[in-house]
Specification:
single chain; 455 residues; mainly alpha; Growth Hormone, Chain: A; 79% helix
Amino acid sequence: MSSAARALTDVAEAEAEAITPEATPQDFPLPSAIAARYTVGLLTIVYMLNFVDRQIVNILAEPIKRDLGLADWQLGAMTGLGFAMFYTTLGIPMARLAERWHRGRIIAGCLVVWSGFTVVCGMSTTFVQILLARIGVGVGEAGCTPSAQSLIADSVPLNKRASALGTFSMGVPVGSLAGLVLGGIVAQSYGWRAAFMVAGAPGVILALIAFATLRDPRPSSTPASRANLLPLSAVLAQLRQQPAFWWLAAGSAITSFVGYGQQAFYVSFFLRNYTPELAAAAQSVGFAGPLAFVGVALGIVLGVSGGIGTLVGGRLGDRFAAQGPGGYGMVAAISMLIAGPLLAAVFFLGSGLTILALLAVPLFFKNMWFGPVFAGIQGMIPQRSRSTATAIFLFVLNAGGLGLGALLTGLISDMFATSYGEAEGVRYALVATSLVSFLSAACFWRAAVAMRRAA
């Protein structure tokens, strides 16, 4: 169709067109709209619990540090590297399993594993024990995201994919909100061990619901269908022909480096710098202490601003990509270009309460990348290999972001602390990592260029 004829079509019809060519057509029908909404909704709740169990350690970092006598680098290893080592490496074999078997049941089984190890974290009495328990959480969570994202991609129309994956990605900020609020309130009254146990228990119930009700629209695995699966080497060979995939992965890894690194030390930053102010604020609203207040306040800021950012980013991704697949990368690039300087500046803006409130602005922009990037990834690869490609993408993302973010932020904090003290050391570490966002914006922009050239 010529550009002149296209200009005469209805806008709604244009947005309903395929916004990026699929690597292969889907070889089974989509479920009903109601069934698709249920799948996206339930998986969003599962993903939320995923991040409750993954991120609750951040609100508990200071009590754990005092109780177990840890340094900041050990906090970083516990919150990031220890979890990421197995989360990243097991993601690919779990994804291969998801391409052969029922994805809903795989997700349910993984949910039981990571919830159980979250409870074990609360029983730990040494650094090694809690590190091993965090590794166990990572083992369980490794099978969730690749299976869930590919299941959503197979359940919704292409032109709604970024919005659906943006909704699913709300599990990140909302789960972080719930983890911070739950962890802060429970830890303030009953201790950090009780907080881990309360966070892990609901996973078993949700796993039963997922096992019984999640439907996989893909036909049951048969010897013939398994024979059509691409081997891992073939998937990697295909991805090597997709430079946009690697630019998106690099941008996401850098963005996650900033996000995971900073979230591990937000609570420490506020408690080390503004405890008297926060204690007074906690008393004025009836909280037991500053830890509970910071958990609730920071959870609301992260959850509300981040949740709105993921929704807006997903919808903008669908709209921009209606003009061409490069729109996915452009939404992510613009959002990170705005987020970086705002995030660096906010840590110097007055009182602790002021910083808490204003943090919502950069976090809104920083969370807009999820839907567009994940939708772009899902459209680049054959339908039957989506889980594997997602796992490869997440391997890059989490090895660089989750694995190194908290650890390096802790090392930077320790380095600055030798000259400026612990309180200012963590502030300068947060500022330094904020500026890395410019690199992620550049990677997303290069991805957008590559996607336009490949279209």
